Amino acid sequence: MNDWQEITGGVTAPRGYRAAGITAGLKPSGLPDLALIVSDVEAIAAGVFTISQVKAACVDYCRQRLLSKHSARAILCNAGQANAATGNEGWLDALECAMLLGQELNMPSESILLASTGVIGQRIKMEPLRSGIGKLVAALSETGSDAAAGAIITTDLVTKSIALETSIGDRPVRIGGIAKGSGMIHPNMATMLAFVTCDAAVAPTLWQEMLSRAADRSFNSITVDGDTSTNDSLIALANGQSRTPAITEMGAEAEKLEAMLTAVCQHLAKAIARDGEGATCLIEVQVSGASNEQAANQIAKTIVGSSLVKSAIFGRDPNWGRIAAAAGRAGIPFEQENLQIKLGDFLMMENGQPIPFDRNAASAYLKQAAANASKAQDMMATNMSNDLSGDRSTIKAQSLDNPVIIAVSVGNGHGSGKAWGCDLSYDYVKINAEYTT
Amino acid sequence: MNDWQEITGGVTAPRGYRAAGITAGLKPSGLPDLALIVSDVEAIAAGVFTISQVKAACVDYCRQRLLSKHSARAILCNAGQANAATGNEGWLDALECAMLLGQELNMPSESILLASTGVIGQRIKMEPLRSGIGKLVAALSETGSDAAAGAIITTDLVTKSIALETSIGDRPVRIGGIAKGSGMIHPNMATMLAFVTCDAAVAPTLWQEMLSRAADRSFNSITVDGDTSTNDSLIALANGQSRTPAITEMGAEAEKLEAMLTAVCQHLAKAIARDGEGATCLIEVQVSGASNEQAANQIAKTIVGSSLVKSAIFGRDPNWGRIAAAAGRAGIPFEQENLQIKLGDFLMMENGQPIPFDRNAASAYLKQAAANASKAQDMMATNMSNDLSGDRSTIKAQSLDNPVIIAVSVGNGHGSGKAWGCDLSYDYVKINAEYTT
Asked: Listed GO molecular functions (chains A, B) (predicted)?
């Protein structure tokens, strides 16, 4: 069983964090577009960023900051303009954002990290940003997580938020997170962003290692359409305000904390996959029997990223042939004779050969999973439009409870892994074809 | 300029080949489903096959044959059942097919190569196949290429065929080809198949090397949905019946022959991409300035395989941001500052930054390309249903003449490459979601 419980509060659930989200006038829509997370004290900071050759200014900025200094106090995020492919002017804009916020918060700009999301090729609208910084800082609150979560989204249908609590040495320790993203998706509204806060005290190198592993098991294991953005960023702060003993090396306590960090990242990643454009359900692919975790993950990602598998799930078609074909082309060697495929409780292939199964019942399983997902998503969207300040983490968790499960075994190895994605519907094409930049 | 001309006749255009296609009763639809290509004499044989871990019996069969013997006289292809994931029974069925045909043609079964396409997990319907073999051999004809091309297709909207002629030492040499495939696509109607005939005399190792390189520059450079099938096969015969001097090493004549072989493969590959399920146009991505050809191909394939780029083209949206993002995530290092992007004649990005361009005119370019493609495809489909025995190579070539061109430069390197694909439309989702196995 898991060694933690879900709590409310998002990124402000851990001690010593405040957050805010306001409308500064960056988005043409007039929706909230500027978010801030601040730690009361300098926090250990780690980051994982896009590996694309085409990167936004904020990604270059954070990479440079974190190379020279493994701590930070604030994360500023604007939505509306990605500030990617904007050259030297975009770089200077990023520096100015950090400088302005540092002045307003009375801290060195070196303590500030940046993230942007929005249209590629557009610089941040600096005039409204300059005017908005004071209002943003004034709005900081210990219950500001949902406001921040609402100000970082672009094409997302719902906000993504989670907070978990465990104990270390009999004292509570919390990790919270917010995220945005729904595939690479809309126009150029690229980008997956996630911000994680923690009140444990962790050594910088260890915190970065934990975050990198957690990212591999969460954000790097989801795919909506295979596209990776110019701005993808995962930033995690650990400020020690739980007053628990510092964790400096791997061991029971570090493992406990890393497991909870991974759970936070997995929740946010699944919420992003579930919110994929036009998606009607979340798909979880579980691969076992591979030679190692990396091989298993590779097979899982190939299956969940297959347009044919995704279309079949949308059509509620228990099409094991497409799953087998996707597993086979993942680039990981295995013996065809060892291939086993299950969809939910339905065994469809064993020893590399098809097994008779109840097609109608298997199709009904897919229909039911989509119906459950649709109901939960509607509740979230309604709740979101009714009450942007309320806490919706419970409903959120429910909507991710019943994914379509595809379980594949490829042999007798000890490597296992999971990947998450969504189905491919008419609406995906519609959203992505009919938007004109 | 190209050193060859287009001729009629498909795989029976080269000297010393006959072909046939009949309805044996393998497909539930009652359409032609059994094809045969025979060389008058033993021909040098080369092959390129799926790299999937899940392979059909025919793929294992051909690989084994070509390992021990670099020649063949006949290619038998059935459509309707893929004979993949069918275990030892499927393997025995394949052996029986070769044995039966060998008896009928009065040649050793070692001279027979096999291909299958159709539903994964289904064995070949052996009863109608056994009854059909005699009829198939009786139908062999020096003008039988189109009948064969029509009997290997499954979900294809049009047949794919080409023949080119050049001269070697003042004597004519011909290469013909037929293919099937429209993405991995329909149900489990996987598979891309291509059969190439040549009447030059070429040394076996050289012929295999030429074919492998041609495959990389054609069939391995197309993508419809990124899915690779269990049955993908490219088989090429060279029977020497042109009576030209044997080509035994690389040199001017070998280069000339390889260029024509590559052109045949590229034509067939583009025809497959154009026939992608639900596609409204062919997209050609040209990448230059990379460090080598492989790097350029990798970037080109990533761009043409991006669901976001494909959706944008379907929406006639000149969305350079998605092209830049896809180039950036291809896994090939380049300096963002060197990125240049053109769509048709429209320069959209230079030195890594967006350039103002006429959006309406660029969108009109995309609309026009799709309108041209649609007109040509309609002509082909009409022609195909009116006259299954006629030669349609001229119309086919026209329909591939005006692809949407995306030209990307990533630096000053000498590596360049091309990839082909199609747009992503509502119909892709419809075809793949609504079919129930």
From this structure: L-glutamate N-acetyltransferase activity, acting on acetyl-L-ornithine as donor
Helix A252-274 with A204-216: angle, nearest 10 deg: 40
Pairwise CA distance, residues A221 & B314, whole Å: 28
Per the annotation, the verdict on B117 as an active-site residue is no
Q: For residues A125 and A116, give the distance between their C-alpha atoms in angstroms, rounded to a whole number.
A: 12
* Helix, strand, or coil (residue B333): coil
Domain CATH code at residue A175: 3.60.70.12
Q: B61 and B183 share a domain? A: yes
B229 interfacial to chain A (CB closer than 8 Å): yes
Q: pLDDT digits over B246-294, tens only? A: 999 999 999 999 999 999 999 999 999 888 778 889 999 999 999 999 9
Q: Are A7 and A165 in contact (CB under 8 A)?
A: yes
Instruction: Assign A42 to helix, strand or coil.
Output: strand
pLDDT exceeds cutoff 70 at B395: no
How large is the average pLDDT for residues A393-407? 69
Q: Is B323 on the interface with A (CB under 8 A)?
A: no
Domain that holds residue A318: 282-433
Other beta carbons less than 10 A from residue B172's beta carbon: 16
Q: How many Cβ atoms from other residues are within 10 Å of residue B245's Cβ? A: 13
Q: What is the pLDDT of residue B120?
A: 83
Residues B223, B350 within the same domain: no
Confidence (pLDDT) at B390: 40
* Residue keyed to tokens 């978010």: A35
Q: How many domains does chain A have?
A: 2
Of A274, A297, A329, the residue that ends a domain is A274
Tell whether B301 and B194 lie within a shared domain: no
Cβ–Cβ contact B356 with A under 8 A: no
Which of A117, A155, A191, A197 is catalytic? The answer is A191
